[in-house]
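Could you please consider the sequence and fold following this short note?
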Amino acid sequence: MDGLITRGIGGFYTVVNGDEIITCKARGRFRKDGIIPLPGDRVKISVKDDGMGRLDEILPRKNVFTRPPVANLDALVMVASAAPPVSNTLWIDKILGLALQKGVMPILCLNKSDIGDTSGMAVMYKNIGFTVIQTAVPTKQGMDELREAIKGKILAFSGHSGVGKSSILNMLLPEANMPVGEVSDRLGRGRHTTRHVELFSLGEDTWIADTPGFSAFDSLDLGDRSNIKELFPEFEEYICRFRDCEHIGEGADCGVISAVKSGEVYESRYESYKKLRERIEA
């Protein structure tokens, strides 16, 4: 039968097929061939008389992420905060760019909008063309809009500790009962609360993956330097004299640099572009 891996711990994999939940172990050849089953994988399994399942085949993946290990995402919800711990635009741009690079729908969730000003950031990213939802857990602001945006998708939530990722997940899916870490007032950042990747059903064929640690979705997945400008779609409409222009330097003939100077391209986005290039080079 076919199924979906929702969790993998210690060599055992939880596979869901309709209303059935089967615990499986992978065939021995998986290890021999260097194949690692991941949450989000669509698989073919067989079930023994004692009810134990075996992973026989992993069906073709449409995408795969390294950190955290998860496959076949349809959407990536990037949770940012306008109140401590405040999210910086470089990190937001990295995650949004990674989603685009993997062919995943990026959704920017600006949380804690009840105690911090998210309006300016919301306008900027909406103008660029991203889906932006302003949320506040205590007042349930944006929750219906978020549910509608993720309906029918396999998706992951990414966010530094303390931005409210687990609180939003608990609001969407109370039975998941995610532990919520307290934000340290002294350090201005959150403690780690999530330890592994697991898919949770929201119904209507919607699956949410919680992801571990504040460094979830690592930039190693971004590829090489030549790919970086493709992750900033607003650059495309500005024509440079040279087709292979890297949009770096003074660039009198660079349409992107001219657009930054005139305010048509947001300066923070251009700074993120340069910094991501530098990190890939390093």
Observations:
- The longest strand covers residues 2-9.
- Residues 14 and 143 are 28 Å apart (CA to CA).
- Helices lie at 28-32, 89-101, 119-128, 143-150, 165-172, 255-262, 267-281.
